[in-house]
Write a structure and sequence with these properties.
- By secondary structure, the protein is of the alpha/beta class.
- The chain has a single domain, classed as Muramoyl-pentapeptide Carboxypeptidase, domain 2, CATH 3.30.1380.
- Helix content is 32%, strand content 14%.
- The protein contains 10 helices and 12 strands.
- The strands form 4 sheets. It has a 4-stranded mixed β-sheet with strand order 8-11-9-10.
- Helix 5 packs antiparallel against helix 7 and helix 8 packs antiparallel against helix 9.
- The longest helix is centred in the middle third of the chain and has 18 residues.
- 40% of the residues are buried.
């Protein structure tokens, strides 16, 4: 892993954006997170991410997912309890254990079923959404409308983790050193059983995993392959998998995604993802000229108009 990190230091901005797996924002400690949050607020105090990121409680409105996964907000959020019979929420300082009630119900049911699904004691739950959704001060572009959740690929331990452990305990990288497949030291059939179960719920729109992980899922799925079409390869997601729910039925103003393309996604599309990731990490293009200035973060006016009401509500 240290060798990979040295390679990362030399990546161009383009390559770095492509290979977010190595950045592992989910691994940030409490101190690192606090420093990034403070810096982002200071740099753009009026940006949507600063305004929503500093809200500590949900809006007392009817539960609604407003806008799209990467441009929206959340009214009437419900918190996933930080401790459940078969789950524990991680990185509590982020206050991102909020979601639409449909997602919270899904997570609680999935976690309760985990011991039966694959024998783990339960789930470690990462970021869901902020109390009012919206752009985040650090990390994700999505997770804005309370319908996205990150679930760690590290099994929940049988004991309750301390507050310090929840803030600083690292997850396990499931990708092999060459990023073309999973690491057999860590990946087990239990991971495939969990992701199959997570994707099989009809309310789930997508599951996002690193391309290296999808290679294993395609190989280990057997004859039951209907769920694989929902599982999409994407950069990052080598420490956790990302569940995305469909917009709740009849919810106006919630912009869902087009259904995934037909088929299991285990052919040329996946091979292309794997090769692009490998090239970006191990053979990145040389920087050309000065790096482009980053675009300013999203403004409040860029979000749906209803998000202003969500932001200002008590």
């Amino acid at each position: 892993m240290h060798a990979v990190n040295r390679r990362i230091a030399g990546l161009s901005c383009l390559a770095l954006a492509m290979v977010a797996p190595v950045m592992a924002r989910a691994q940030s400690t409490a101190d690192e997170e606090a420093k990034r949050r403070a810096a982002n607020i200071a740099a753009y105090p009026d940006a949507a991410r600063s305004l929503f990121g500093q809200k500590t409680a949900p809006a007392s409105l009817e539960a609604r997912a407003i806008g799209s996964y990467a441009r929206g907000c959340l009214a009437g959020a419900t918190a996933l309890p930080v401790d459940g019979p078969s789950w524990q929420v991680m990185r509590l300082n982020r206050n991102r254990n909020w979601g639409h009630p449909v997602l919270i119900d899904y997570l609680e049911k999935l976690a309760r079923d985990v011991p039966r699904i694959n024998g783990w004691p339960g789930l470690l739950v990462g970021d869901i959404s902020q109390p009012r959704g919206g752009p985040m001060l650090t990390g994700h572009a999505s997770h804005q409308i309370g319908l996205d959740a990150d679930l760690w690929l590290t099994p929940m331990p049988r004991q309750r983790l301390t507050a310090q452990e929840r803030e600083n305990m690292p997850a396990v990288n499931m990708a092999r050193a060459d990023w073309r497949d999973v690491d057999p030291r860590h990946w087990t059939p239990a991971h495939t059983r969990l992701i199959r179960a997570a994707a099989s719920d009809p309310r789930v729109e997508r599951i996002f995993v690193n391309p290296a992980l999808k290679v294993a899922l395609c190989r280990e799925s057997g004859s039951d392959r209907g769920w694989l079409g929902k599982v999409r390869p994407i950069w990052g997601h080598n420490y956790h998998f990302h569940v995305r729910m469909s917009c709740p039925a009849g919810m106006e103003g919630c912009d869902g995604q087009e259904p995934p393309s037909s088929g299991d996604g285990c052919g040329e599309e996946l091979s292309g993802w794997v090769e692009r990731q490998h090239k970006a990490i191990f053979s990145p293009p040389k920087p050309s000229g000065k790096p482009a200035r980053p675009k300013p973060p999203m403004s409040l006016d860029a979000l749906p108009a209803e998000c202003r009401q969500v932001l200002l509500a008590r």
